[in-house]
Design a protein that fits this description.
Structural class: alpha+beta
Radius of gyration: 18 Å
CATH class of the largest domain: Alpha Beta
CATH superfamily of the largest domain: YebC, transcriptional regulation domain
Strand order of the largest sheet: 4-2-3-10
Number of domains: 2
Shape: globular
CATH topology of the largest domain: Alpha-Beta Plaits
Helix content: 25-40%
Largest sheet: 4 strands, antiparallel
Strand content: 25-35%
Number of helices: 8
């Protein structure tokens, strides 16, 4: 959608979140850890699913609930929004990728769809059971993806702008910043002007912190590098 960007795409491109996820690396919880998930609503009624890996269910539950409440959202019951998402194999390619060539190889490999974005980046969607095969064929044919994962994707999206859009970005940032949060999914599309305003505010905040802290959070600059989002 012109003028709106999907949160999932921005999240994927932020080095800060990539580093955070790598620190939590482990597909299967270790001894003493368990997987838990929460569902809820953000500003404007946006759907949010939060996946966690934790050794303290009570603590993470309180943290997630607090994040929702502090940013205009609320937790829902199990199943309240998860039905709005489906599981899909997702491979992403940066701007400048040969879209026509990628599409031909991807469809031959068994991909379900090839989706170009406004910034000329490209997403390849595959059935989770065919994901490994599609990825292997694409890589063998010279189309190594920038990212490749089996993830959740919203069947429909909700556009937010203005104060609701900014509050939604703050909610998602707050949830992703929690130590035990593994993934955050949303069906929201945020207006590009909100993302630009939010990014500029972050940059202003960084200019006021010590140099060491600024270096640690420098990946925030990626928030404003173009239109991209779920």
């Amino acid at each position: 959608m012109a003028g709106h960007s999907k949160w999932a795409n921005i999240k994927r491109r932020e080095d800060a979140h990539a580093a955070l996820r790598s620190r939590r690396a482990a597909d299967v919880p270790c001894e003493g850890l368990e997987r838990v998930h929460y569902e809820g609503y953000g500003p404007g009624g946006a759907a949010v699913v939060v996946e966690c890996v934790t050794a303290d269910r009570k603590r993470v539950s309180a943290e997630v609930r607090r994040a929702f409440l502090q940013h205009g959202g609320q937790l829902g019951a199990d199943g309240s929004v998860s039905y709005l998402f489906y599981t899909v194999g997702l491979l992403t390619y940066p701007p400048g990728t040969d879209e026509e060539g990628l599409m031909q190889v991807a469809l031959e490999a068994g991909a379900e769809d090839v989706v170009p974005s406004a910034d000329t980046s490209v997403e390849v969607l595959a059935d989770p059971q065919e994901f490994a095969t599609v990825r292997a064929v694409l890589t063998h044919r010279g189309f190594t993806p920038a990212t490749a994962e089996v993830t959740r994707r919203a069947a429909t999206s909700l556009e937010l702008s203005g104060e609701e859009g900014e509050a939604m970005v703050e909610l998602l940032e707050a949830l992703e910043g929690l130590e035990d949060v593994w993934e955050v999914y949303s069906n929201v599309e945020i207006a590009d002007e909100v993302l630009a305003r939010f990014g500029n505010k972050r940059l202003a905040e960084l200019s006021e912190v010590p140099e060491m802290a600024r270096d640690e959070e420098s990946a925030v600059n990626n928030v404003v590098d173009g239109a991209r989002y779920l």
